[in-house]
DNA sequence: CTGAAAGCGCTAACAG
DNA sequence: CTGTTAGCGCTTTCAG
């Protein structure tokens, strides 16, 4: 570490060839004599050469890095900034995104840098980061429909792919789920098993996905004569599920079915139900959404609407790689279909 | 986006000064006439200039990026690689690490790139990544005592800080918890509330922290005359907690106290207990470890040994920044003290 | 306090 | 198939 790192020049000298030739074998460009290739390779391991990424990026204009950003909407106090990051990462949803993204990035030798953009300043930093060429593009997951980041990215002409369709049209590719169909699936299942006094806990209505899940659910209920379904808005956390169900149970003690807009809330709902002496699914059936890890962990295991997050995240990474590589120039969208997974809660 | 991005040269021309001067104001180096400074600033915003990070890194030899790597030990099949990432990120522990790290990195304008090193090949890639200068240093969290990555990093003379003391001495800084004290705290609490038929579910014994927590627990139990404490080894997951407790309950139906080496397992334990008609803490008291998010979410909320993960992660980031900056040259260690958090489970 | 000039290490034409 | 030659955009002595 004390000695200066060897450069192409050093390897070239060691192998008795030119820098260009060494560069070619390092980058696997053919047109290099097998014999020379071999001697270069030996010189490389003899010198312990590792190409300097900065020098390389300077000319290729690629960093092989993408920003994985979780963006909010409004501004958040300085103190809440860490809380934002903590909350995001703690959500099993995020883990699935990372898993799907990494799976696609790795074989391409690309790496994700984590960024949280919960304030306007932080969002500006993301844009700057990309404009500086610190990353080749961005994968963005918005926690709010009004997230201004997608528009900023598009305006700057930066390669980016979104998780979920932006509320306001933006010329960026995105992947999404047919949330309405998911809501429909949940309603049909609850109705199908005979529930008649059904309530629902939606996600934050500032999130488009929440609205859509709810709309699909309500439409289906209405089609079956259920004009009115009691609703409480939750925040996609276990706690909010607990609070929402506590409220709903007080007003509708005879409830026999619940649709929760995500599994975390469904878990909180099951807890409240149990604590109030209701058996799940015997007395009250509960359907969640996502099919995240807690769906399996929860007691009872959750019947839920599966959202193939890993596949969606993988698709995002693939699309971004295509945009970066220039293979794809026009924005496109990929919509995934939800699927009902029946376990024990309903 | 179509037009070439402006360079220092462009700004210099626009402001009628030299590149050097522009560079100085961009980097906030004083010794620049206020008037000129102002005109340069205007030229910058007029041109929409953003410094090229690659060019900058090439000369400063800094990327303002650090690798945040989660490393395992043995090799894992190709198919399990994504599962590894998924499992890691899904664990609330990881979220706390990220939160603590980001909190320190952000004010330093540094960014974490996520890497999973569960195979020898992946570990080699981490080393290469750093040697290429793609990141200035590494923050490593090992999931196994035999993790070879720390030694590789040290041998390559790369700046790195570890979460937890490495099993085999390595000249690298690390932060850790006084795990033994944590185990002692748990034992004392269980004993103090009158439990006499106590069992324990440890973490994987291949993890040093698990061994230490267990040792501290057993020592204290022994000091109080409990020569033998039934033990089942778990895997730090809810499922493993369920399995372990099912086994223990079958052999020791009269159990009245359980120490779980982490909260996730404690949650599984509570589920099993409840399903077998045992009240927590009335019939059986349960003490967890970590004080992670599930400790609060769990029913009943867990009495647990708090590990200040966010603070520990923040300390890691701080140490790494010092090593990178050359402010600190010798490896050091920071040991945090655990703390008992009493809630309802014991 | 400012400018000129020398690279940082690598890739990519372009010759040969 | 290989070598020569330009830069990529920026920081940083070193003069002035």
TrEMBL record, chains A, B:
Species: Streptomyces liliiviolaceus
This protein's record includes keyword Cell division: no
Superkingdom per UniProt: Bacteria
Domain HTH cro/C1-type span(s) in chain numbering: 7-33
Annotated keywords: DNA-binding, Transcription, Transcription regulation
Family annotation (InterPro entries): Cro/C1-type_HTH, HTH_LacI, LacI/GalR-like_sensor, Lambda_DNA-bd_dom_sf, Peripla_BP_I
Signal peptide positions (record): none
PROSITE patterns per record: HTH_CROC1, HTH_LACI_1, HTH_LACI_2
Protein's recorded name: LacI family DNA-binding transcriptional regulator
Lineage: Bacteria, Bacillati, Actinomycetota, Actinomycetes, Kitasatosporales
Domain (HTH lacI-type) ranges: 6-60
């Amino acid at each position: 570490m004390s000695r200066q790192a060897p450069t192409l020049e050093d390897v070239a000298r060691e192998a008795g060839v030119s820098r260009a030739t060494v560069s070619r074998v390092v980058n696997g460009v053919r047109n290099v004599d097998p014999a020379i290739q071999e001697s270069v390779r030996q010189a490389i391991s003899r010198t312990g050469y590792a190409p300097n990424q900065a020098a390389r990026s300077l000319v290729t204009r690629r960093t092989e890095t993408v920003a994985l950003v979780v963006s909010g909407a409004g501004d958040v106090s300085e103190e809440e900034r860490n809380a934002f990051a903590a909350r995001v990462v703690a959500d099993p949803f995020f883990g699935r995104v990372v898993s799907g993204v990494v799976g696609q990035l790795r074989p391409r030798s690309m790496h994700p840098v984590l960024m949280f953009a919960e304030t306007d300043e932080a969002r500006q930093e993301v844009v700057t980061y990309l404009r500086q060429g610190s990353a080749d593009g961005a994968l963005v997951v918005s926690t709010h429909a009004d997230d201004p980041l997608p528009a900023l990215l598009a305006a700057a002409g930066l390669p980016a792919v979104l998780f979920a369709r932006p509320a306001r049209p933006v010329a960026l590719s995105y992947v999404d789920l047919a949330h309405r169909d998911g809501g429909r699936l949940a309603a049909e299942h609850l109705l199908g098993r005979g529930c008649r006094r059904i309530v629902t806990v939606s996600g934050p209505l500032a999130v488009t996905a929440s609205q859509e899940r709810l709309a699909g659910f309500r439409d289906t209920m209405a089609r079956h004569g259920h004009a009115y379904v009691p609703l409480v808005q939750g925040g996609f956390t276990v706690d909010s599920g607990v609070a929402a169900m506590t409220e709903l149970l007080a007003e509708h003690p005879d409830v026999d079915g619940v649709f929760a807009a995500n599994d975390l809330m469904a878990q909180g709902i099951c807890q409240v139900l149990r604590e109030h002496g209701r058996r799940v699914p015997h007395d009250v059936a509960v359907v969640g959404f996502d099919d995240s890890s807690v769906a399996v962990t929860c007691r009872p295991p959750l019947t839920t609407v599966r959202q193939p997050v890993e596949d969606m995240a993988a698709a995002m990474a693939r699309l971004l790689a295509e945009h970066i590589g220039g293979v794809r120039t026009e924005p496109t969208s990929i919509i995934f279909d939800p699927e009902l997974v029946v376990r024990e809660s309903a």
